[in-house]
Specification:
With 348 residues, the chain is of the alpha/beta class. The protein folds into 2 domains: 2-140 and 311-344, Quinone Oxidoreductase, Chain A, domain 1; 147-283, Rossmann fold, CATH 3.40.50. It contains 11 helices and 17 strands. Strands 3, 4, 5, 8, 9, 16 and 17 form a 7-stranded mixed β-sheet that branches. Strands 12-11-10-13-14-15 form a 6-stranded parallel β-sheet, with helices on both faces. It has a two-stranded antiparallel sheet with strand order 1-2. Helix 11 (324-332) links the parallel strand 16 and strand 17. The protein is globular and about 60 Å long. It starts with a strand and ends with a strand.
Amino acid sequence: MKAAVLHSENRIIYQEVDIDHCKEDEVKVQVMAAGICGSDTHKLMTEWKYSLPAIMGHEFSGLIVERGNAVTNVEVGDRVVAIPFTPCKMCSYCNSGEFSLCENHGMLGSKSPGGFAEYVNIKATNVLPINGMDFEEAAMIEPLAVALHGVLHIHPRIGDKAAVFGVGTIGILVIQWLKIAGVKEIIAIDISDEKLEEAKMMGCERTINPLKEDLVETVLSYTNGEGVDLSLECAGSKVTQEQCLLVTRKKGKVGYLGIAYSDVLLKEHAFESIFRKELTLKGFWNSYSAPFPGEEWIKSIEYIQNGRIKLKELISHRYKLEETQKAFDMMINRKETYGKVLILPNKE
């Protein structure tokens, strides 16, 4: 098969690679759409922690074209989404249903070959049927489940006011879930006016560009001087990870979904906000719960199918498999404003 193979830092080669017949508990998925995650660009530009050469891509959907003898849950021809995470099911976290915290998990696209290829062999327990769902939308189920994992566990209340820092793909998906959860008013915060316009179209009542107006003063003016009930950090910026603490009201909650990939050093005032306001801080990792893969995945599929979640509007770029390097170069060098970028190894 053909694949986009990572050989070294930001060096991807489109080449022929071998793929085995699937094992008795596996299926072979013909990849129809695969998303580039923000973490992919980071891993591509820093020291790769896993074996090279490697095939990246952990957000993908496709068609089952082969199945092992022991597989009974799906059929050849089924449309499916891949669950990239494989829990060990032996550690204490797995035994308590906290699969996202598994200490010895597998992961497609890093520890084993992922979706930037024509085909992927994957355990049959790691695919879910999508029925007639569009493959491009289905490739976004993984980030949608990540967003829902954060929203579910920050426990928003009907009528809350929330601030969402960073309105890239995860931020926009968080905004949609917050609206579904009954949050009364959402303030989108980003340094891109274009991204803020997208947030408005997704139902955000207010937007703030901190480069153009004072963030804290503006949030306080929108919330009767109290601050928001919830802050959700989706930018993965050490700046916004501090700002969350400044705009959240007393007894409020702060949720961290973004990863800064650098030291986060808090100023005295920001750090004191944690205990003077008695804030609750929570971090959210991955998207899995019991029974595996969890309600995050099941509800994501349901809400896409009933039209409650908008995904197509978030896709800004589509590339052929042989153009994978070009796609990463565009994102890394920020040659264009982008939303969700997809690789399409096998066009319908």
